[in-house]
Every structure is written in C-alpha cells, then in structure tokens.
Amino acid sequence: MREFMDRDFLLETDTARHLYHTYAAGLPLVDYHCHIPPREICEDRRFHDLAEVWLGGGNPDGTYFGDHYKWRLMRSNGVDEAYVTGDKPGFERFEKFAQALELSIGNPMYHWCNLELRQFFGYDKPLSAKTAAEAWAFCNEKLQNDPKLTVRGIIEKANVAMIGTTDDPVDSLEWHVKLAADPAVRVKVCPSFRPDKAINISKPGFAEYIGRLAASVGAERLESTEEVCRALTARLEFFKSLGCRASDHGLDYIPFRPGTAAQADAAYQKAMRGETLTVEETEIYQTAVLLHLGRAYQRLDIAMQLHYSCARNVNARMFAKMGPDTGFDMIAQNTCGESIAAFLSALDETGECPKTILYSLNPADNAQLGTLLGCFQSADLPGKIQHGSAWWFNDTKDGMEAQMRSLASLGILGNFVGMLTDSRSFLSYARHDYFRRILCNLLGRWVENGEYPNDEQALRRIVEGVCYQNAARYFGL
Fold this sequence. Notes:
Layout: H1 14-24, E1 29-31, H2 38-42, H3 50-55, E2 57-58, E3 64-65, H4 68-76, H5 81-84, H6 90-102, H7 108-121, H8 132-145, H9 151-157, E4 160-164, H10 174-180, E5 188-190, E6 192-193, H11 196-199, H12 206-216, H13 225-241, E7 246-250, H14 261-272, H15 279-300, E8 303-308, E9 310-311, H16 316-322, E10 330-331, H17 337-349, E11 356-360, H18 366-373, E12 385-387, H19 397-410, H20 430-448, H21 456-474
Parallel strand pairs: 1-4, 4-5, 6-7, 7-8, 8-11, 11-12
Antiparallel strand pairs: 2-3, 9-10
Helix pairs in contact: 1-20, 1-21, 4-6, 12-13, 13-15, 14-15, 18-19, 19-20
C-alpha cells in the first residue's frame, strides 16, 4: 500500500513519474483566470489564521467573500451557516471544516486542501478532526510570522508568472495601476475584462449599471446600443493599457440572433425603461454587443473567454439572504454549440475572430466543443481556439482527465493552454500541481500502453507546453 500523498502522488507509472519530476514540477504557473482581489496583492496582505485564508466570511456591507467550494462542503455535512460564512470563532469554523473534509474521500477538495498544507506550510499530516487543533496552531504560527507567507510571498513560493484577475469595465483599476508602478512586484498582475452586466440586458439592475458605465467614460447617459459599445471599447482600451490579456464572459448560454441596429436599440430602450424583454429582443441586443466586443478583442490581441451552462443562485431563499457567488449554483443544460459556431463564423468572415477559450460547465458538451474547435483554427497561432480546462464542478481528477481525453481525441492536446485556478483563495495555486500530476499520469499511461512512443523530446515539448509554454505564448508573456 502506498503512503498517502507521497512524492509520487497520482503518478502510476515510471514514465509519469519521470515526466512530472523532470519537466512539469518546476515550471512557472500562468493563472490566467481567477477571482483574487488585486488590492490584497498590492497591500501584501498577511492573513491571521487559516479561517481567514480558507473560509473568509461576511463583509461589513452585507456581501460575502471566500472559497465557496469549501462552503458547499461544510453545508453538505450539515454545518450551520454561522460556522460557514458567519461570525463564529475562527478555530470553531476551521474545526467544522476539518470534520467535513475527513469524510470527503474522492472529492478533489480533500486533495487540494492537503496539498496546500504541505506546499505552503510544510504540514504533512492529513487534515481531520483529530489533527485540526495541531494544524491550526502549526499553520497559524507561520501565517503570522513567516515573512514568506504574505500574499506576495505565497505567489512567489508558488512560482506564479502571471495572474489574470476578473474586473468589471467600470472598475477604476486603481490597484492595477499601483501594482504596475511597484518594482517590487515581480509577477505580472493583469486585469481581465468582464462585461457581463452590460450584456445581461434582461437581468435586474441593467439600467442602473448602464448609468455607471456612462459615468466611467464621462457621459451623462448612453442613448443607444452603439453608444454602449463605444463605452465598452473605451474601457477595454484602458484595460489594455494596463496589460489586459483576456476578457471573460459568464453567460447562461451563448446567443446568436443577428438583428438590425434599430432592433437592438429598441430592445435597449425598452430595458432602460424597466420593461420586460422577449427572448428574441434580449438575444438581438446581446448578439450586437458580443460581435462588437469580439472584433475589439481581435484588434487589441485580447483572448475571449466564454463560460456558459451554469444555473446560478438556484436557492432563492439563500440568494435573497447572501447574494451571488456564495455556493448555490449548479450545472445547467444549455447546449448552444451551434450558436457559438455561428458567432465565431460571423467574426471569421471578416477576419475578426479573436483568440477564444470555450468552457461549458456541462461535461456532456466536451465532444461538441472538441469538434467545434477544428472549424475555426488558423495560422495565426497554434490552438487559437481552445477547449478550456475542466471548469468549476468539473475540475476533479475524473473531470480533468475527461476534458483532456476529449481534447486529445478530437484536437491537439499538445497545444492546450492548461490549468487555471478560477479561485478566490491565494493558496489555490496547489491546484496547478494537482493538474500537472494528472496530465503526466495520463501521458505516462498512454506511453506505457504503447499508444504513443517513448520519445523524450516530443513528450518534453508536450508537458512543458501544456504546463507553461502554451499559455505564456497565448497570453503574450
């Protein structure tokens, strides 16, 4: 029987062990999509204890911050919300989490959390109800006193080359400005453009948000869809001036319903009056804005990320109490491959299709996305159109393998831009190591099964490409 999480954790063959230890383990990380706050990097925050860094909690304004993966795990163990996101003492919250984690065999959270304790703190006992007090004391002493365990120290320890934060178009990006001017910051911290609120015309708060967008470009109001597009372009160019390399769209599904400018404006005016739109009106407006942004991304060399098929905030009672992004989302069935293809085709016809990364939260869409990629690749860049890494509920061992197997079967795995954290926790960089071990194990299995030659040069190129080089090239590092 192997020891738990030993040096060769998840590496089942000699080839897998060789590829991981020789090539993958020491490479820098490109965390091109995450939700960590740039302010905390700028201020080099020091966390007081593991409850702060892992569980977060409530803000004074009634919003919540923290890792909702962990919140869901605690709720699944019947933990009262006062311990999950409330104001119970830190150790009591951490202990409740440890009790839940101990039961979570087969859940990636079990591996992630124990990897984080080992990699950042050197604590090598499995976290459980029995070890919670010891782990709490051991790790908190380091959090409070180790000069290498501030936010910047954690980033440096994880060997992160680039961080892509997620930022609203109306954001002043003041913390990105300060980071760019600070010579002590060695990691590239790049804003990513997330214009969902300007696209989701039929969702509550749209008119109020458009007012904020107008103010961000010095206008009293935005009179038309065209003016909204111009305002978004102005903000995108500002983001680009501060190193923006990617946009991000989190939509229920990707629509494609071309209409006239007059139809898009009619829908826009109706929404600004607070009236309910039809599905057709909504999609005409959304298509007009998405096409405009796609062309702008191509012109500015900004990658377009499209995330879809998530049903958000499905617990109405908890959404009313806590707001969005608090752990009450699920996989949806919004298969829209044909609409995505039509959208990319419209951009491709005029030579304005940007680099694009596609993520569906529904793993049933893997093969559809894999076949879609090959329809829009170009000589501009190998792997210009990407099937994004296993996202959210899919970034499990099985989910990562399924995504990579599908990509390998239907495209070129060697051009994949690899892993991201999509996380709100600075310790989540351990997930890159988890991914690299799974990748090397998959490759090693194929080699030792005789499905790919034991070609050192070719295997090295694939491993180093997927773990770092492809993303570095794709995002212009």
